[in-house]
Amino acid sequence: MKPMLPTLTFEIPKGEEWAYEVKYDGFRALLKWSERVELDSRNEKPLLPLFPEISEFLNKERKKIEPFLPLLFDGEIVFLDNDYKSNFSHVQTRGRMRSQTKMTERANHSPCQLLLFDVLVLKGERISSEPYVKRKELLKSFFQEIGWPTRPDHKSNKIIQMVPFYDDYKSIWDKVTLYNGEGVVAKKRKHLWEEGKRTTAWLKFKNWKYVSCFITSFEKSNGYFYVGVYSKDKIVPLGQFLFGIKPDEKKALYKTLKENKIDEDERFIYVNPAICVQIKYLEIYEEQLREPHFDMFRFDLLPTDCTYERFLLQQNNLPTEIEITHPEKPLWKEPAIQKHDFIHYLREISPYFLPFLENRLLTVIRYPHGIFGESFYQKNTPDYAPEFIETKLADDINYTVCNHLQTLLWLGNQLAIEFHIPFQTIASTGPSEIVFDLDPPSKEYVHLAIKAALMIKEVSDQLNLISFIKTSGNKGLQIYLPLPDNRYRYEDTKLFTSFIADYLVSKDPDSFTIERMKKNRKDRLYIDYVQHGEGKTIIAPYSLRGTPFATVATPLFWDEVNEKLTIEQFQMPTIIQRVKEKGDPFRTFWQAKEEQNFDAVLQFLKRN
Fold first, then answer.
1. Cα–Cα distance measured from residue 157 to residue 111, given in angstroms and rounded to the nearest whole number
2. pLDDT at position 202, please?
3. Mean pLDDT throughout 340-363?
4. Residue 46 carries which DSSP code?
5. 23 part of the active site
6. What backbone torsions phi and psi does residue 535 show, to the nearest 5 degrees?
7. Cis omega (within 30 of 0) on the bond before 335?
8. Which of 187, 204, 221 is the last residue of a domain?
9. Does residue 377 share a domain with residue 281?
10. Same domain assignment for residues 337 and 303
11. What is the CATH number of the domain that holds 568?
């Protein structure tokens, strides 16, 4: 069966006859389940072998699904960066894999999701002849009855989720642009599903990004214009465009290039940077503009205005209320990081970073001059903060609460480099997690932190506790045990942290100590169990540190905790690619909060 397809539009339709869905960038897929389960691409190729996590999830949910068979759903295989954006390059990489070992590893570390947006057959009854809104109602009822999410949730462990529709275009468009999603699809409420047809009853409107660049060459065989930008004195190629330019404009541009060429061979006509254009595109994929379209000539720009730094800022597609000042300000020397690089990092890492900042009283360390000048702690929200900044008054301090991307980017523009958070949310009466801070006397003793971490992991596993680990970004390591909110007190968790500290010291007193006086610790690792308390803070996962090498408090997979581990290998320029390639080691953190069986351990400690 061939799916119904939307038509691209450059003007979103509005009116009561239309409803709106978020458009997710992935692999279109039809889920069919009769005698056996099948998941096929738009070209009718089987997808389940490439995405074993979907097959495994369906098999686990088989008993719930059986009463609804036979069924047929329409959807998209995605990898959610956030609730409004799928990472296309991640899905594309998965689709190319042929190694079963690598597919299984990716499926475990960073599983894809199947987002369903339409139902065509349910309980053997053909639904495709029903209007769109009726099909959506039936789809939602199915999801509610079976207990699956009725809207995309990147933190959920449910592999299959539903795409809802919205009546108000602007509200969902604002979310899509803020969270850098692909776009929206407008669908006629009364329209029926049509197999294999590209229809104007479904219109896709994309969240274009824009880049100012210059033309470098023309490919004679296919009519493509190649573009680039300057990075200092070197030209950085961005790819090529063909669509969007009018025939008369294309003819005039070709003539100009031909008359001003500096070289020509069998394939290309080459020119010096001179003609500036504005290109709209979806994202950067494999260092090329994806789906580039000509937008306009930029006769107001010189080629020297078309810089890689400006491209990065344009690529971020920042919210209108965020202005980045002095984007070329240097923050680190080695690696060479400028302010625009830092803002880009915050934007890209925000899906993994923001959940740990949400609803927490935030303390930041600001570096107004990068690491080249003085830094200072900031707890109080400054008077000049914009109205969209959320705050919470506690102990006469008006803390910033970073619940949204706008706030994170505003703090980034203020050069808040380090983000420190308490162990509980503003709504919790006790700790939301247990954290062990394994702080060696110096970087040369990181092996002691590794040794302590593995010992704590061994004990936690024996107690059936779920643990996560990250670097501190400075000298040591930090172990997290997530807890359900509002269930435990700090007095409870102290029983456990002190028990673990005493255990480590008793096992290896030459390596570990609970001595608070630094002069008495010698070269032993300090087990700081006292630090885990009300009002104390810890560096947030994925926060940068104000170290000379721009290190990041980086979540790790437990198999990375070995003698090869160093803190310096996790620098800001490497983290985004690391997450894209390996996945997020804290992906199941929120699921573990509900599954954590701390009651049994606590009762044992209280009895003893």
1. 9
2. 97
3. 94
4. B
5. yes
6. 85, -15
7. yes
8. 204
9. no
10. no
11. 3.90.920.10
Number of domains making up the chain: 4
Distant-in-sequence, close-in-space partners of 314: CB < 8 Å, separation ≥ 6: 209, 210, 211, 212
Whether residue 17 contacts residue 201, with contact meaning beta carbons closer than 8 Å, is answered with no
Pairing of the two strands 512-513 and 525-527 = parallel
Write down the pLDDT at residue 149.
Answer: 96
Q: Is the pLDDT of residue 161 over 80?
A: yes
Rg (CA), the chain: 27
Asked, for residue 141, whether it belongs to a domain, the answer is yes
Residues 590, 525: one domain?
Answer: yes
Residue where the block lists tokens 């994170």: 408
3-state helix, strand, coil in the chain (%, to 5): 30, 30, 40
Q: Is the pTM of this model over 0.70?
A: yes
Closest to 321 (Cα-Cα) out of 419, 180, 178 = 178
Band of the pLDDT at 122, cuts 50, 70, 90? very high
Q: Which two tokens stand for residue 303?
A: 């080629």
Helices first, then strands: H and E counts in the chain: 15, 36
Residues 109 and 184 in one domain: yes
Judged by DSSP in three states, 260 sits in: coil
Distance CA 257, CA 491 (A): 75
Count CA within 13 A, CB hemisphere, residue 326. Answer: 11
Beta strands in 79-224 (DSSP E): 80-82, 85-86, 113-122, 125-126, 160-162, 183-188, 198-206, 209-219
| Cβ 158 vs Cβ 54: under 8 Å | no
Choice among 2, 14, 23, 209 that is catalytic: 23
Query: 549 with 333: CB under 8 angstroms?
Result: no
Domain range spanning residue 73?
5-204
Mean pLDDT of 93-113: 91
